[in-house]
Design brief:
Distance between the termini: 75 Å
Order of helices and strands: HHHHHHHHHHHHHHHHEHEEEHEEE
Shape: globular
Strand order of the largest sheet: 2-1-5-7-6
Low-confidence stretches: 1-16
Length: 503
């Protein structure tokens, strides 16, 4: 067996070795590229075909869409993911085209993030870390989706790796620039996450006198500020200032405070993309076993790193991962698996190192090694099943929203038009209408009087679930039954007089 395989001894590596020769680069690429290619392939087979846009996705995509008005953009959101989707969304309304675009980009981003680390950790360990992270159902599900969290994960992995290389070698200007660009990218996607990413990196750069690089903290801070700039400007122009926007963003999150949510995140791993409120029973514990094992694998990876001279990069990845996880585990009172994707990307490094040491320790013990490989294969198979299950729900929802939009068209709600009420964002996007919600909720963008005046000029509908009554300002509008989402009671639309049925 080759000495540099994943089960070989993991000797310490200098953080600034001589530049790799072309043959070494090709060998490293041959080990990492298959992980990224497999990640793209599984997305294209399981998570792309026939899936529809989620509610948050619709908000982001509508900002740059060619054929639909922009949905209300609430205080916590940032524009980065909309700009990432723009090269496709601005030219076609095809969800398939958008999905393929993002799936291929996410695979390339995974390869780039792992490539940055090749001078810091053994490449076979990086390949295993990539497999562990890319094999999670949230990573597979959100790869082709227009959602920001996964992109923060790739940016965080890149930023930590570039920061370590820049701190170790003053001549590595590409790593220094890469750290700033990666932090800026994270801030464009999710400004708050960028803060929790930069915090441990700056502290580490300032706390190690022997390797201190004065430029690194400045570059990290400049990158964060550059990424935050659009959000800050928008806060001043549209939200009454930065403090007001931060306050409103906290309100929409249900308040930021002491809200330990470990159990919520554990239950959400059963395939729930959002668990709010997360009062469901933990009836599929097998889906959370890997999550319970992750702290043990991380601790084992740190111990292995200490013994092999790799402690500094592994400790940096662990610290940054824990920093990114802390606000979602401790301060937000609900769970969504996508929130922890940046932490999973970084913690995959110590976990992979631990698994590599276990594989080495089981050399010559086929039963033990077979059991370890079987556990890993079972974990990955379960993640694929959950990915397929989430995709199936998305396909069913897409069909349901298409049926609702088609019925509204038949009833005279055609562009230019406006939709309000339950799931207005997704229905309006499918129908080519604007979505407007009356003040009161976190998507409130118009007054009741303003919506009634708008409905007098263009076709309008307010959607209610089940047997709910129309809001007071729409009680004189024409009721019409609509199909609901799978497993839900049928909806009802109240149609403004300006909406006249076809024919």
């Amino acid at each position: 067996m080759a000495r540099d395989s994943v089960t070989a001894p993991l000797p310490g590596r200098a953080l600034h070795p001589p530049p790799a020769v072309p043959a070494a680069r090709r060998r490293d690429l041959a080990r990492l590229a298959p992980v990224a290619a497999a990640y793209a392939l599984v997305q294209l087979l399981l998570a792309v075909p026939g899936t529809g846009l989620g509610w948050d996705e619709t908000v982001y995509v509508s900002q740059v869409a060619r054929d639909a008005p922009a949905a209300f953009f609430s205080a916590p959101r940032a524009r980065g993911i909309s700009w990432l989707a723009a090269p496709v969304a601005a030219y076609t309304s095809s969800v398939l085209a958008l999905r393929v675009h993002l799936a291929l980009l996410s695979a390339a981003a995974l390869l780039l993030a792992l490539w940055v680390w090749r001078r810091l950790l053994p490449v076979p360990v990086l390949a295993l870390a990539g497999l562990l992270f890319a094999g999670l159902w949230p990573t597979l599900t959100y790869g082709p989706q227009a959602m920001p969290n996964l992109w923060v994960a790739f940016a965080a992995l890149t930023a930590v790796g570039c920061s370590l290389r820049a701190a170790a070698d003053r001549r590595d200007l590409r790593a220094l620039a890469g750290a700033g660009v990666a932090v800026a990218f994270a801030a464009l996607m999710r400004p708050a996450d960028a803060f929790w990413l930069v915090l441990p990196l700056v502290c580490a750069a300032l706390a190690v006198p022997g390797r201190r690089r004065p430029a690194l903290p400045a570059v990290l801070a400049a990158g964060a500020l550059a990424g935050w700039a659009p959000w800050l400007v928008e806060a001043q122009l549209d939200h009454g200032g930065v403090p007001a926007r931060l306050h409103r963003a906290a309100e929409i999150q249900g308040g930021i405070g002491w809200h330990p949510a470990f159990g919520d995140h554990l239950r959400a791993l059963a395939g729930r993309t959002l668990c709010r409120p997360c009062d469901v029973p933990w009836d599929q514990p097998v889906t959370g076993l890997w999550w319970l094992a992750l702290p043990l694998l991380t601790a084992g990876g740190l111990a292995a790193a200490y013994r092999t001279g790799l402690l500094r990069p592994v400790l940096a990845a662990t610290a940054a991962g824990l920093s990114l996880a802390a606000p979602y585990l401790l301060m937000v009172g609900y769970a969504a698996p996508r929130f922890l994707l940046p932490a999973y990307a970084l913690l995959a490094l110590p976990a992979a190192l631990c698994l590599a040491r276990l594989l080495r320790a089981t050399r010559g013990r086929p039963a033990a090694r077979g059991l370890l490989c079987l556990a890993l294969a079972g974990h990955l198979a379960l993640q694929l099943l959950l990915t397929a299950e989430v995709a199936d729900r998305s396909r069913a929802a897409r069909t349901a929203f298409a049926a609702v939009a088609a019925e509204l068209h038949r009833q005279g709600v055609r562009p230019p038009c406006v939709v309000s009420g339950v799931e207005a964002v997704r229905v309006a996007y499918r129908a080519g209408c604007a979505s407007r919600q009356v003040y009161g909720g976190h998507d409130g963008s118009i007054s009741a009087a303003g919506l009634a005046a708008l409905a007098a000029r263009q076709p309008a509908a307010v959607l209610v679930a089940g047997g709910a009554a129309a809001p007071p300002w729409a009680r004189g509008w024409r009721p019409h039954p609509l199909p609901g989402l799978p497993g839900e009671r049928p909806w009802r639309a109240y149609l403004a007089p300006s909406a006249r049925p076809a024919g």
